[in-house]
Design a protein that fits this description.
The complex is a heterodimer. Chain A is an alpha/beta fold. Chain A has eight helices and ten strands. Chain A has a domain of about 160 residues: P-loop containing nucleotide triphosphate hydrolases (Rossmann fold). In chain B, helix 3 runs parallel beside helix 5, helix 4 packs antiparallel against helix 5 and helix 6 crosses helix 7. The interface between A and B is large, with 44 and 39 residues.
Chain lengths: ~240, ~270
C-alpha cells in the first residue's frame, strides 16, 4: 500500500510549489496518472520511489518512509523512465540486467543465469550479448523493464514508458505492463491506456484535480484541456 | 573509436577464457616492453602476435577496421615524420608499437565483458575499501565508459542542430547546448542509478534526526523546574529557596523531545 500524507514538493531554489500537499492511498493494482505537461505527474510518481522527497508530509510504501528508508523502498518499487537510454548503464543487455542483480545475487554465474532468464521472459532471448546501442527503442524499453523486474519489485512506477515508442512497440510494452502480476502505476498521455486502469488520477497545476473511475477521469481531463466547464473535482 | 565501447563478443578463445586481471596485466606489460625495446624486429614480432590475438577473438569487422584505421593514420603520420628525419628503424619501431598496443587493447575489449572489468576494478580497490567503496569505484569505471559515447552523440547532435540553424561557425552554438545536454544526461543517469538502487547497499539508512539540543531552552526549563520545585518545597518544608537557585541546571532535565510548534516538516 502506498500512502501520501499531505506530501508536498516545492522547487528548492525558488520555493515555487510543484506539488501541493497531497493525501492519497494507492491500493489498486493498476493506477494511471494523467495530466498536462508540467502539471506535476512525474513528481507525484517520483515521490513513490523516493527519487523526489517531500518537503512536507510523508510518502510511505508498506509503512516504509521514502525519506528515512529510501533504499528499502526502492527494493520494493521499481521505476521505469520515459527514455530507456538513460536507464541502461552497461554496454550489453545481459550485463545491464546483471548489474541490477548484483545486490541480490552474489554468485556471478547464478547472476548471469538469472539475467538471461529475465531477458528470455521479457522477449529478449538471444539479445543478451547485443550492445544496448544496437537495440531498437522498443527493445531498449523492454531491457529497462527486464532490469527492473529482475529484482522482483512489488510495485512498478512507469513514467510515460511508451511515449518514445512507435505504435507496435507501444502496444507491446503497454500489454506487457498490463499483464504484470504486481501493482503498476503508470504516468501516461495515452488516454486509452489510462482508461484501462482500475483507478485514474488527474493532476492539474500541481494538485489532484480528479481521482476515481478511469472513464470519468479521462472525460474530466478532456474537458479540462479543452477549456470546457468542469464539474467539481472529486478530490 | 566510440563504437568500440560495447564491442564485446562472447566466445571460447583462450583470450575469452583468460581472466580480466591477466589480460589487463598483459596489456600493461606489452605497453612497457614496447616502450623499452627499440629493436624494430622485436617490435614487429610483438605487433604480429597482438594482431593474431585480435583476429582470434573474431571482432566485429566494421568497428575494428574503423578503429584500426584511426591508429593507422596516426602511425602513418608518425612514420612519415621519422622517415623525413632519416630514422627508418625508429619509424618501423614506432609504427609497430602503436599497432601492437591498439590491436591488443581491441582484442581485450572484444573478449572481456564489462562485468568482469567491473569486478576487477572492485577487487583492485578493495584494499582501500575504507576510503574508496569498491562497488562504487567499479561502477564509476563502467559509467565513464557508458558516458563517453553518449557525450559524443550529444555533441554530434548539437553540431547537426547548429548546422541546421546556419550557425556552424559559432562554437557557442555547439558547446553550450552540448554541455547543457551532457549535464542533463549525467543527471538522468544519476536518477536511474538511484531508482535502480544501484550502489546504495553500502549507504546506511537515514535515521530519524535527534531533536536539536537547545541549551537555552534547557537552562530556562531547568530554572523553571527548579523554581517550581522550590515553590512546592517551600510550601511543604522549611528548605530554603537558595538550595535550588544555586543548583546547576542538570542534564536530567528533559529537553524538548518534539519539534518546535509550527514546524511540521518531515524532510
Amino acid at each position: 500500500m502506498i500512502e501520501f500524507k499531505a506530501a508536498a514538493v516545492t522547487a528548492p531554489d525558488s520555493g515555487v510549489s510543484i506539488l501541493e500537499p497531497t493525501t492519497l492511498t494507492l491500493t489498486e493494482e493498476r493506477i494511471s496518472i494523467i495530466g498536462a505537461n508540467g502539471s506535476g505527474k512525474s513528481t507525484l510518481a517520483r515521490l513513490i520511489n523516493g527519487l523526489v522527497l517531500p518537503i512536507t508530509g510523508t510518502v510511505e510504501v508498506d509503512g516504509l518512509d521514502t525519506v528515512k528508508q529510501g533504499a528499502k523502498v526502492r527494493r520494493k518499487v521499481g521505476y521505469l523512465f520515459t527514455d530507456p537510454t538513460s536507464q541502461l548503464i552497461m554496454p550489453t543487455a545481459v550485463e545491464d540486467v546483471t548489474l541490477s542483480l548484483r545486490r541480490i545475487i552474489d554468485d556471478k554465474s547464478e547472476r548471469t543465469e538469472a539475467a538471461l532468464t529475465a531477458l528470455e521472459e521479457i522477449g529478449l532471448g538471444g539479445k543478451g550479448d547485443v550492445s544496448v546501442n544496437a537495440l531498437s527503442g522498443g527493445q531498449r524499453q523492454l531491457l529497462a523493464l527486464a532490469g527492473v523486474l529482475a529484482v522482483t519489485p512489488e510495485v512498478i512506477v512507469a513514467d510515460e514508458p511508451t511515449t518514445l515508442l512507435d505504435l507496435r512497440w507501444r502496444a507491446h510494452v503497454g500489454a506487457l505492463l498490463r499483464t504484470l502480476p504486481l501493482q503498476v502505476i503508470e504516468v501516461t498521455h495515452d488516454l486509452d491506456a489510462a482508461s484501462r486502469a482500475h483507478r485514474t488520477i488527474v493532476i492539474d497545476s500541481g494538485a489532484v484535480a480528479f481521482d476515481g473511475d478511469p472513464a470519468e477521469a479521462v472525460k474530466f481531463y478532456r474537458d479540462l484541456m479543452f477549456g470546457r466547464p468542469t464539474r467539481t473535482a472529486d478530490a | 573509436m566510440i563504437s568500440l565501447l560495447g564491442i564485446y563478443r562472447p566466445g571460447t578463445t583462450p583470450l575469452h577464457k583468460a581472466s580480466a586481471g591477466l589480460k589487463s596485466l598483459m596489456l600493461l606489460l606489452t605497453v612497457i616492453v614496447t616502450m623499452m625495446v627499440d629493436d624494430p624486429v622485436t617490435s614487429v614480432g610483438i605487433m604480429c602476435a597482438c594482431l593474431l590475438l585480435l583476429v582470434s577473438t573474431a571482432p566485429p569487422a566494421k568497428a575494428t577496421l574503423r578503429a584500426m584505421g584511426i591508429i593507422m593514420v596516426v602511425a602513418v603520420l608518425t612514420v612519415s615524420f621519422q622517415l623525413w628525419r632519416g630514422e627508418v628503424e625508429r619509424a618501423i619501431d614506432v609504427a609497430a608499437d602503436l599497432t601492437a598496443i591498439a590491436a591488443l587493447a581491441l582484442a581485450i575489449s572484444c573478449s572481456t565483458p564489462m562485468e568482469s572489468m567491473l569486478d576487477l576494478v572492485s577487487r583492485m580497490v578493495r584494499p582501500f575499501g575504507r576510503i574508496l567503496p569498491p562497488e562504487t569505484i567499479g561502477l564509476m569505471f563502467a559509467l565513464t565508459l557508458r558516458a563517453i559515447p553518449e557525450a559524443a552523440r550529444i555533441f554530434i547532435d548539437a553540431r547537426t542542430a547548429a548546422r541546421a540553424r546556419g550557425l556552424e561557425r559559432d562554437p557557442r552554438a555547439v558547446l553550450i547546448p552540448g554541455a547543457t545536454r551532457t549535464v542533463g544526461f549525467a543527471l538522468q543517469l544519476g536518477q536511474a542509478l538511484h531508482a535502480r538502487g544501484i550502489a546504495e547497499e553500502a549507504k546506511p539508512e537515514r535515521t530519524e534526526k535527534k531533536p536539536r539540543r537547545d541549551r537555552r531552552s534547557e537552562k530556562a526549563a531547568a530554572k523553571e523546574h527548579a523554581a517550581a520545585q522550590a515553590t512546592a518545597d517551600a510550601e511543604t518544608s522549611e528548605t530554603p529557596l537558595v538550595t535550588y537557585s544555586t543548583t546547576k541546571p542538570a542534564n536530567d532535565v528533559a529537553g524538548p523531545t518534539t519539534a518546535p510548534e509550527g514546524n511540521t516538516s518531515a524532510s
